[in-house]
Specification:
- The structure is a single chain.
- By secondary structure, this protein is an all-alpha fold.
- Helix content is about 75%, strand content about 0%.
- It has helices at about 1-20, 35-45, 65-80, 85-135, 140-185, 190-200, 215-230, 235-290.
- The longest helix has about 55 residues, at about 235-290.
- The radius of gyration is 26 Å and the shape is elongated.
- It starts with a helix and ends with a helix.
- The model is unreliable at about 20-30 (pLDDT under 50).
Amino acid sequence: MLSFAFYLILVAGLIYWVERPSDLVTNSLNMQNNPGEALELWLKNFNWNKGQELKPQGQLPHYKFYTEVVETLLNLARRMGGNYQESLLHLREGLQADRQFEKKLKEMVLGTWLQMGMMMVLTWTFIVSALFLVDIKISFTKLILILLWQSLGLGLLPLILKYLREYFFGDIGRLWKMLYILKSLSKVPLSRTEILTMAQVQELKLIKQKNLFSLVEKLKGVCQKALQVGGSYDEEVGYLMSELRFQEKWHFELFEKKLMMVKLGLLSVFFLPSYLAFIFVLLGDLLALM
């Protein structure tokens, strides 16, 4: 009963954390726990047409590569003048989509932690209950070993999650950064060489995900055409962004399947054996008393 009550409290707390209302972080641009929302609010309030003072770099909320793109536009405005409201609006739309994507990832990861945590709670609820019911003194060292084994499984989980996130979404993040900078600067009176340098397209060689090679080759072709022929590349970049969004959704499904395998693996190696180990130790001590 106690474990069930703890389970309900834990579930309620996680749901509140994921779905907490935005007014809890209110209108401050210094929302330390939600930089994505802070940056979106900054973009929403910023208005070039009112002659709003361009904020220094340090006052911008930092969220992934989006902050760097905004800083690039602000620096260009200081240097060359111009209105980049359309570029900021397009960036804000991408930021909203990214925040929804991150929310889904967050819910999935929280669900994994919940399952691991509840398995540990249920195991130790059973162990404590069994020790109260039977008059047997089990070696404290054995219980510590069981706890350490389960803790090792929990300790591996964040490392695995970090690796999987970088593996499935690291290269996608690099491509988003390039495409957003190219899209935002498509109408800026700069040389194509300078724009490509700002977008850091030279980092395309760092892309290792085989599923993205086709998109990388298309982007290289767009960049080469922009350098050789000139003209607008805005439409081509828009198509590549749509294709990358599709790839991102597909990688999310792959991440979900891989995470399910990780959960089953951790449960099978660290949690179920811990439960069976206690049963084995308990039965061994019972047989020794007979």
